[in-house]
Amino acid sequence: MSQTRTVVVTGGNRGIGLATAKRFAELGHRVAITARDPGHIDDQILAVSCDQTDSNAVDAAFEEIESNLGAVEILVANAGITRDQLMLRMSDDDFSAVIETNLTGSYRMARRAARPMLRARWGRLIFVSSVVGLLGSAGQVNYSASKAGLIGMARSMARELGSRNITANVLSPGPVETEMFAALTEEQQATITEQVPLNRVAQPEEIAETITFLASDSAAYITGAVIPIDGGLGMGH
To answer: Which long-range contacts does 81-86 make (Cβ < 8 Å, 24+ apart)?
Structure first.
């Protein structure tokens, strides 16, 4: 990247988010992460507590980041939760909580991030979706819906903000070696891995590399795209 930028990675305290935050820091950028309980990550990375289901908390987090690092130029909307359950057993709260965090929460973060981007006439909005957003997944009606929603949202933002040199793109990872994947049984992990043509799960760093590319000047003409990083699992979308 040709210039140092201020980057915010939501859900940046573990998994894909942490790998992404570390990669941006390695590239010399000013990096902040948000999470409900972020803890201390790295002396190079500003960790900010933020519940993205609360608009006031989002505003407060951005004010803290802006006062320490400057106006946000790159947002990686990665934070998400799961509450897996078969549809007929899924409660209204199971459904709405996942939508509220994964989809509406990402909207709140992007809406707040877009303000300084509009003034600067430069910005990158990068949303981390999932292969199940288009593939579907039994027991994940809520999660799949939230991840599919990110695509329509990002593409609408791409159309709204493109004239101000702000891009909005979506990553669609397949299975990744994270705590979420590790929580599955060995049998579940094997079943998922067998469905991937490359016959393995991704490392978080592989997702981070594509995210940093989308944030770079080399990706300036990419917007409204859905980029699969899934080992071939979702081919045909």
So the answer is: 82/140, 82/143, 82/180, 83/142, 83/143, 84/139, 84/140, 84/143, 85/139, 86/138, 86/139
Q: How long, in residues, is the chain? A: 237
DSSP element (H, E) containing 207:
helix 204-215
Q: Kindly name the residue from 143, 158, 212, 214 that is annotated as catalytic.
A: 143
Q: What is the pLDDT of residues 29-52, one digit of tens each?
A: 999 999 999 888 888 999 999 999
Burial environment of residue 8 by CB neighbours within 10 A (0 to 12, 13 to 18, 19 or more): buried
- Per the CB < 8 A criterion, the answer to whether 50 and 35 are in contact is yes
Q: Which of 213, 231, 230, 233 is nearest to 222 (CA)?
A: 213
Q: Which residues on neighbouring strands pair with residue 95, listed in sequence order?
A: none
Q: What is the pLDDT of residues 68-127, one digit of tens each?
A: 999 999 999 999 999 999 999 999 999 999 999 999 999 999 999 999 999 999 999 999
Q: Residue 128, SS3?
A: strand
Among 143, 122, 99, 103, smallest CA distance to 10 is for 103
Residue 212's CB is within 10 A of a number of other CB atoms, namely: 21
Angle at 135 between CA 103 and CA 196, to 5 degrees: 120
Active site residue 143: yes
Sign of the CA dihedral running 197, 200, 201, 203: negative
Burial of 23 (0-12, 13-18, 19+ CB in 10 A): buried
Global confidence as pTM:
0.96
Q: What's the CA gap between 42 and 47, in Å, rounded?
A: 8
